[in-house]
Amino acid sequence: MPLLLVVVTALGAYVVVRVRDSFGANAYASTADANADETKPFNPKHITYEVTAPSGGTASLNFLDEDGQPHLVEDAVLPWSHTIVTTLPSMSANIVAQGDAGMGHLRCRVIVDGEVRDDRSIDQYEPFIYCLVKSV
């Protein structure tokens, strides 16, 4: 009985190896690609943040850069805009603005490749506003 078990196991292993060889399952793919260093970034996205107020003034701003890192701009003179270019396949664009004490209206926009993706405005004393595009 043990001899039969050894023969069946050996025969099964032989069949598996032959089937794998016939379909090229043991073939190795080349990892060296001559064109690997010549890759170019795909579809760069141009993202523009805008914050405006009809009476000018200043505002404190927080926005995400091309690497998704937050940046603070204190007392930014309005109108204010900033453009970034990213090749990341997915990114969120976000800007938050707090107007100064003398301001009664504030507007923000996020423009991606020339298309306005978020546009908000608010009328209140010391306005606070945000614009968000979840996926540019």
Automatic annotation (TrEMBL):
Protein name: MmpS family protein
Compartment(s) where it occurs, according to its Swiss-Prot or TrEMBL record: Cell membrane
Keyword Transmembrane helix among UniProt keywords: yes
Annotated InterPro entries: MmpS, MmpS_C
One term under GO cellular component: plasma membrane
Pfam families, per the entry: Mycobact_memb
Lineage: Bacteria, Bacillati, Actinomycetota, Actinomycetes, Mycobacteriales
Keywords: Cell membrane, Membrane, Transmembrane, Transmembrane helix
Similarity field: Belongs to the MmpS family.
Keyword ATP-binding: no
